Amino acid sequence: MDEDEAQYLARTFVVYNLPIGIRSDALKNRGDLSLTIGDLGYEENLFLKIEQETQPITTVLPAFTSSVEKRLIRQIEPMETVLVLDASRSMSDKIGGGLKPSVLMPTILDDFVESLTGEQIVAEDHHIGFVPYSGYVNIGEAYQDRLITPSSRTIPPSLAAVAAQYGYANDFLNPLGVEGQRDGACVKRKIDNTSMLNQILDLPANANQGFDLLVYHPDEPLSEPDLKDEINRANSGRVPTHLLPITQTHSNGSYIGTAGACPSMALHEVSGQTVSLRERTRQYYATHTTGGDQGLIWALRLLDNSWKNSVWRDPGFDLTDPKQRIVLFTDGRNNVGLEDDAFIQLLQHSCSIMVANEIKLDVILFDQGISAEERQQYEQCSQITGGRYHYVLGDDLGALQLFFARMSIRQYKIRFI
């Protein structure tokens, strides 16, 4: 809370809690109140001292000053928010006067985190998680051993020469490997058709039941090779080299490569670790293709209690019975994974899960070519979960910033003692 916000709260609420002797004047002249405000910040208590010079009834009587000291209790319901972030190629299109959404998003996300958690090292009332997606989701280094199947990360004999040339062996996720260099781990889909929707929250008992690693090589060819320069150019040359798609080649024609259709920004578990969250926002860059099915599915997994207890790291501070919400940011154009009618079925199924678990869905639909039917489904899901729906034309970056700012307002319950 800053000085202006505190003044606003005081002028709006305090005058109605003043002693009767000065309340009537205060209501008429609230702009004349002199407010001395205690320590600001994110503490629950806010101490206020209100003074007002009261005009005399007659010219014989001198003016006098009345004052009252109050303690304002600000309370906010504990909340867990997962941001589902479209990091597809369209986020690097030049729009809105030549600006690119991908250039603005790190600042927008950092402001979001700071607004809800302040400058606390560990937030005690609002935890945040990230699920960036393009064609796939990057689960990051932290969850490789728990979620990646050993068979999919084992380097086959046919690629041993490539790995050896770059100084490693056996494991695709070696720090010298193409995914290891960016501390990433892109995973393939498990839910690849609508008959499997009931398996979204199935928890792998161990890594053998986990997810297959997505790494390109001759047996699984690059769908679109040589995306490194294109992705860097699309992001105005801002992407650190280790976060760009990497290809390691051998003279025998073999190669190992990362997926350009997988975000450089890894997901982040729902957490109150403010520093870690803010560092992660700086890794947002647009990559390639759009698979919104993965964004929704992994967001539900981040909020699921079974996954929390078995997979995700300690959030830093336990919240008591927190409310939950998903903020879905998408351009609406899915072109990989569950698309069109299949995606609508996924959205409807996900919405039923949210309703059953009292999870709100807030939607920021950054329209760059979504169908009317999909747009309607997003709006309906946000309504029935009690969330908010914001429609933004794909060239209106000002509205995009505004809606993210609205989603990050701390809503207090106020009472006076």
What this model shows, in words?
- This protein is α/β, with parallel strands linked by helices.
- Helices cover 30% and strands 20% of the residues.
- The protein has 13 helices and 14 strands.
- The protein has helices at 3-13, 20-28, 101-117, 144-147, 150-153, 160-165, 228-234, 274-281, 292-303, 305-310, 340-356, 372-384, 397-407; strands at residues 34-37, 45-54, 64-75, 79-86, 126-133, 137-138, 186-187, 247-249, 255-257, 268-271, 323-330, 359-367, 389-393, 413-416.
- It has a six-stranded mixed beta sheet, sandwiched between helices. A four-stranded antiparallel beta sheet has the order 1-2-3-14.
- A hairpin with a 5-residue loop joins strand 8 (247-249) and strand 9.
- Helix 9 runs parallel beside helix 11 (340-356).
- The longest helix has 17 residues, at 101-117.
- It is globular and about 75 Å long.
- Mean pLDDT is 82; it is low at 18-28.
Defining key terms:
single chain; 417 residues; alpha/beta; six-stranded mixed beta sheet; four-stranded antiparallel beta sheet; 13 helices; 14 strands; 20% strand; globular
Mind sketching the topology for me?
Elements: H1 3-13, H2 20-28, E1 34-37, E2 45-54, E3 64-75, E4 79-86, H3 101-117, E5 126-133, E6 137-138, H4 144-147, H5 150-153, H6 160-165, E7 186-187, H7 228-234, E8 247-249, E9 255-257, E10 268-271, H8 274-281, H9 292-303, H10 305-310, E11 323-330, H11 340-356, E12 359-367, H12 372-384, E13 389-393, H13 397-407, E14 413-416
Parallel strand pairs: 4-5, 4-11, 11-12, 12-13
Antiparallel strand pairs: 1-2, 2-3, 3-14, 5-10, 6-7, 8-9
Helix pairs in contact: 3-8, 3-13, 9-11, 11-12
